[in-house]
Amino acid sequence: MKRTCFILAITVLLGMMAPAAVYSAENKAPKEKVDVLTAPFKDWQIYLESAKASPDSNHIATVARKGGKFAVILDGKLQAEYDSISKETPIFSKDSKHLVYSAKKGNRWVVVLDSKEGRSYFNVSVPAFSPDSQHLAYIAEKGASQYCVVLDGKESATYDAIPPNFNLVFSPDSRRFAFAAYKGKKMVMVEDGKESEIYEKVSMPVFSPNSKHLVFPVMVKKDGKDKQCMVFDGKEGTLYDRTGTFAFSEDSAIFSYSVVSDGKAMMVSNGKEGPGFTDIAMPMYSPDSKNMFYLAVKDTKNYLVMNGKVSKGFEKIVDYIFSPDNAHSIMTVKDGKNSYALIDGVKSADYESTFFPTYSPDSKHLAYVAVRDKKWFMVYDGKEAAGYDFILAPNFSKDSRRMMYMARKGAKWFMVVDGKESKAYDGVALPTFSPDSRTSAFIAKNGDIWFVVVNGIEGKQQFMGFLKGSDITYDDGNQFHILGIQLPPKATLGPNLVRLQVEVPK
Questions:
Q1: How many C-beta atoms surround the C-beta of residue 225 within 10 A?
Q2: Cα separations in angstroms, 41 against 85, 97, 142, 278, 445
Q3: Do the Cβ atoms of 323 and 329 come closer than 8 Å?
Q4: CA 84, 106, 124 angle in degrees (round to 5)?
Q5: pTM of the entire structure?
Q6: What are 439-449's pLDDT values in tens digits?
Q7: Worst-scoring range by mean pLDDT, 44-48, 99-103, 285-289, 392-396?
């Protein structure tokens, strides 16, 4: 489910309370098994901060150093030695089957994919995998003002410069590819190997969700002035003083973007201009793509514009979301001294703050955070849960009958599962339900020691920490794994990088 958060200054995440539901096994300790993926190498210093987890949390890659040489270690296997390894790498593909990194040999750089070196260059960018993990692209510097894109080992034409940030773009189906490049001081868009018209400037390309359309903003000169427009499938749109944020609907049928013309901010949706405002936020869509909406600002008021219709003005609109089935919506607002939620247009109780609403997967339950007298409450289906000093990270089970969230009282953290507090810990994270919704699991910390907690029972295996980017990943209904850092008994060279396998008692 997509969420709309208009106020970027809010950094707090939401926690919620679900109605009690009993699924878990009786108080039986989980069965744990530790597989060592990478143990310390003699004479090699492993940089733990470089450790990367694969998306499926089954593999670990890290960088190590011996004297003046560097190497990548993948699941305990030492790769080739180089003079340097790029800090942005190694990178796993989305299917976790491939590993790529950039390495320096002498004064030149190579991209290493699955242990095979590509051609050497003066410099290379961070490599990018396609969504299906079958293609790899990166920018290569061949010489002074000589740059190309290497796609699956083949070089593009040479350009004077190629911006590296957010510029190597694959279509969602991975069959198409685009990037912007400089020819002298002007720019072109290169789409599937073909150059567009030459423009003063070209910005980030975006493919539609169905991969059939490509759009990008450009700057042109008209009557000596800089003007901007969107180029949609090679056709230039209307010129404006400035173009801003843009987005396709999920079904790719609607394309909307913000513009500024004669001092007024407007939304243009499928070529039709909306009303003018002081400023507007990015376009958003309902899950079924039938509703396009955005936040607008005029004078000191915030407005929600839905399919061209403007709401009443509020001091601040914080969030607006639809339920997954599109049948319901909630908007949290600040109006004068009070903050409240409008649920299907019906006003809730007043609070000091309300924000970050979340629907259950089946759209039958709704929760949002509310603050009153410095206490944080979860309001679930209109009822307030117990107050905390802070709450965050909501997680519904797939069947929508269960929910857990993290909460803090003073310096202690709790995981609230089905409305019941766990033991107090120094830290908790990764609230996760099993696919069948029967098991709740999370990681917790006491002092410097981390461990898993399954259905309220603490695991016996202890860890220095769990790998960043590694999640509690279920293999089936009663078994999951996660990657961690563990110091074995009598360790002399340092900690092991391990995979913890957990079997949940039935």
A1: 9
A2: 18, 24, 36, 60, 28
A3: yes
A4: 65
A5: 0.89
A6: 999 999 999 99
A7: 392-396
pLDDT tens-digit map of 240-290: 999 999 999 999 999 999 999 999 999 999 999 999 999 999 999 999 999
Contact 385, 395 (CB under 8 A): no
CA 364 to chain centre: 26
Neighbour-count burial of 328, counting CB atoms closer than 10 A to its CB (0-12 exposed, 13-18 middle, 19+ buried): middle
Residues 223, 208: Cα–Cα separation, whole Å: 33
Bond before 90 cis per omega within 30 degrees: yes
Neighbour count for residue 395 (Cβ, 10 Å)? 22
d(CA 310, CA 290): 17
Q: At 366, which helix (H) or strand (E)?
A: strand 366-372
For the chain, counts of helices (H) and of strands (E)? 0, 53
d(CA 341, CA 112): 52
On whether the CB atoms of residues 250 and 285 are closer than 8 A, the answer is yes
Residue 293 in contact with residue 309, Cβ under 8 Å?
no
CA dist 347 and 340 (Å) reads 7
Q: C-alpha 456: how far from its chain's center?
A: 29
pLDDT at 119 over 90: yes
The CA distance from 212 to 204, in Å, is 17
Structure tokens at 375: 């206490």
Of the candidates 186, 113, 190, the residue with the CA atom closest to the CA atom of residue 148: 190
Q: Is the Cβ–Cβ distance between 404 and 395 less than 8 Å? A: yes
Token digits of residue 110: 């190579």
> Which of 23-37, 263-277, 302-316, 433-447 has the least mean pLDDT?
23-37
Q: Please say whether the beta carbons of 212 and 237 come within 8 A.
A: no
Residues in the chain: 506
| 189, 225 Cβ separation under 8 angstroms | no
